[in-house]
Amino acid sequence: MRLFRFLMIAALLAAFTVPSYADEARTAYKRGVQAEKYNKYDEAYEAFRQAQQLKPRDAEYLAAFTRMRFYAAAEHVRAGQALRETGKLADALAEYTKAAAIDQTNIMAQQEIRQTTELMKRQERKDEPPVTRLVSPLVKMAEQAGGPAELQFSSNSPITLRLSENADVAYKIVAKLAGINVLFDPEFKAQRLSVELNDVTPREALDMVALQSKTFWQPVSNNTIMVAADTPGKRKDRQNNIMTTFYLRNVSTSSDLQDAANTIKGILDLSRIQLIPRQNAIVMRGTSDQLVLAQKLLSDIDKPKPEVVIDIVVMQIRRDKVRNMGINLPTSTTVALVPGGGIGATSGSGTFTINSLRNINATNFQVAIPSATLSALMTDGNTKIIQNPEIRALDSEKATLKIGDRVPIATGSFSGGGGASVSPLVNTQFQYLDVGVNIDVTPHIHPDGEVTLKMTLEISSVTGSQNLGGVTQPIIGQRRIEHEMRLHDGDINLVGGILEDSETQSMSGYPGLLKVPILKYFFGQENKEMRENEIVFAITPHIVRGQDLDEQNLRPVDIGTGSVVEMRHPTPDAPANTSAKAGPRVPAGSNKPKVAPTVGANPPAAVPTPSSAPAAIAPPAPQLSTKADPNSPNASPGGPQASKADDGAESCPKGATPEHPVGCYLNGTWRVDVGDGRGYQQPPGSSGSATANPNGPAKGMTGTSVQQDPKTATASGPIV
Length: 720
What we know:
Helix content: 25-40%
Structural class: alpha+beta
Largest sheet: 5 strands, antiparallel
Distance between the termini: 111 Å
Strand content: 25-35%
Shape: elongated
Number of strands: 24
Number of helices: 12
């Protein structure tokens, strides 16, 4: 008795406990669904995890838990990336750790943890002594390897230069004005040239002297340049090469990487290129200008592919009406002769002889009359099928959607060996056809928000079967559309309104009576069938990522000549002037003239220059007189001054100020008075003297400059 009571109590506990666990799991699942609706991924993850733990074998709970585990981990990774970009490494590491704890298979979270930890260690090493570890000396040397030399001018003040001298003298004068050193190739042969430059920067002056003298200059340090003849051999010997690795972010296949490399080879004449497909990287070796332009080109072409979501609605409407009304009367009868009692003797088989025919009568005939059927049936059926698939596809990439079944069909057969009969299913080859809704689409996204769609739409179904050679083959009916169209983003286009409308009417009965309006239903039967079937495709493209272009991508860039690839550096702009003696630069094309410096006996000449005096250097031609009158009315107190040399005595102009320094080239030496009270000194960054012609007479020339802050910028476009 006690055992019976114990079993009853246990059964009752089990009956109440199991539903409570089931209800608790369902409650947790509903709580997770509600949290997911409001994008509370952590709460949804915990709820789905609880439901899955309570009922581990429930497929619905397992699917929800797996999905939310991925979303919750991805959300923490995204939050960590945002924190790391703002410099909050500790908070970012905490987010990455949460993501890794939620989803241990999230490789992205583990990578971010390693990178963030390394960044935090680097920050700590800045304040602590370096930790001793085994590092190859080559690794240390690689970390300390220097980049390309960047030429830094002590002043970017615009200058004006007029001289007729050898090319080396012109280089030295510009170099002293810019505060840099200049070296010449041992095989350099200076050519005489005449230079007349107005309102140019030191870099532009160097480039123009190089262009006129058929030479090129190459920075060897931040304040020294090397000048050599512009020949392919000298460029190969003197131009420094640099190496860098470009990591492309938006390539998906090796062909994309190869296309980028071929573009760089064809445009920038770079031949030393190596592809690393596994890292989506390109390693290049070339001149500094070539690699800067390669970076510009890769920034223009390494763009994410545009994407589009194609909303396809397949609407099929079918209506069938069948009406069958009338009386199906017999249209034939049979009469049989049977032996009867009045016919004479018959044989034992039930037949009778010719003599017995004379006694035949009505009792010897048997008539079979079929039955008549009254029919009154009407059928009306409506069928509506709507399918709404969505396809997300990349630009110029084919996307395929198949909804339906795969039906086997026989494609060939072979005869078995020997004389034994073999079933046709044994030696028949089969292939499978996709039956249902099949969609193939290739989009091309245009920059103006339009999409070109090359589509193949097919709806097929098995409509019957047919026996061919002992094998039952399905009969497949299909409706197929292949076309190409161009739509705006969000436009709805109805494609292929396939309408099938059939009406069938048949009558059966006695001839003549079927034409009588009322009697035809008593002596015949009428059958009417009406079928309507319409299929409509509605296509709607939605661009989710367009072509990302900006002004930098559309900006033209000057890359040199047809034989030499060079980058034209930008011209720094001078700030607004605060002194009456030094004004801002006037844009090109200004018609306001400036009085040129008076040299020797030459009269002043009006040339288009800025409204205030820029840097000016006015050396005389060798054949002109070396004396000039500083009190000439043509001399402007705020503009270029005339110099005077008499028997080697110093006759440079006075009155320099910090806003308006004055330069003087006297007896083969260039000096500058910056207005600080020390008088004429050698320019900063220069050493020694620039001797124009030791054997010739002394010549004097002066120049003024406008103070200006140097400004860096990207590669410039062509001169227009």
